[in-house]
Predict the 3D structure of the following.
Amino acid sequence: MKLKEEKSKMPNNNQPQNLPEGWKRVRLGEVLKYEQPQKYLVKGENFDKKSGVPVLTAGKSFLLGFTDEKDGVYRNVPVIIFDDFTTDSKYISFPFKIKSSAIKILKTSTDEYNLFFLFNLLQKLKFQPSSEHKRYWISEFSKIEIPLPPLPEQRKIAEILETVDNAIEKTNRIIEKYKRIKQGLMQDLLTKGIDENSKIRNPKTHKFKNSPLGKIPEEWEVKQVYELINIISGGTPDTSNPKYWNGRIPWLSIEDFNTGKRWVFNSVKYITEEGLRHSSTNILKKGMLIISARGTVGILAQLGKDMAFNQSCYGLDSKNKNVLTNDFLYYSLSFYMKNFLNLAYGNVFDTITRNTFKDIKIPLPPLPEQKRIAQILSQIDHTIEKETAYKEKLQHIKKGLMEDLLTGKVRVKII
């Protein structure tokens, strides 16, 4: 009996059949030469998090850390590093060492080609590796044909795409800066608070007391989360009944709110009123919280409008808004629940139950102070989300530019 050989899927790049004047088709192996990485492999296994020579992989993790090894550092940059198994690639413009021997280091074969132009073409290819564990550069990837303009046009296209990349990277740095500011503010505001003069409390000028969470302001209490909230269960209408689906009621699952954003406004799937009535799901009101309870647990978001949700999540709502606001609950749970889960379970927890909330404690400032704290953190979140939206816009612009410029649909002017 012959086994059917699974093949990788070659890219369909939607290239025009008639190339623009002056363009030609070439194979990747003709324009990119490779070097094996053995001379540049890192020897150690433990990497520093902050300083040293970067240790890279071509996959999603990319930067594995830093090493103090001085020998075997690749310095002839820029280059493309290419994972021979996954076909992932990265453009590198700084000295580095490599972790995996499966990496190939790619440079242009002659000065007729622009490396950054070719890197962007690689990102556009829709090559799908098979499930077979094999190397692809020599056997398949290098044989892929690409459309290639003259060098001046390559350079101009690369310059345009690099400008957008630089804007994306600048926005990324802004986002990361505000995330660091938010983390520091959460540490201060949720352990020391802010007084009536809008100053973060200081043990030298304000009174603190011991608590199960450490020292907290004298005015605060520590409460068990379970005592303060209503925990609401979700559910799923019968998926085989079309009358229950594609209605007007948003139906949340973790994929909808595992975005790193505070607010969730939309869902991929919708249910009908009939689906709501004939299932165990419930409607969470605007302002309530949703938390993932299975799989990737502890992901938290706040609802921007009324929505139903599935049974892998819990809805959370303050029992008494004069004691605890949902806005403050969001930030205090974001801070204290993550710490609790890491301390109690490490990386092995995969389920949150109702009883979990009996073990989680949060500080409870007076209501006016809760509102001040939530307002400050909300302003930071608003800035982060605004910059994130701008970054997504830039990424969309770049995708359109790549489609137009790398295929010759739109020509660039060479001055």
User: Anything to note?
Assistant: DSSP finds nine helices and 22 strands in the chain. The chain has three domains: 24-148, 150-189+368-415, 221-364. Residues 151-189 form the longest helix (39 residues). The first strand starts at residue 24 and ends at 27.
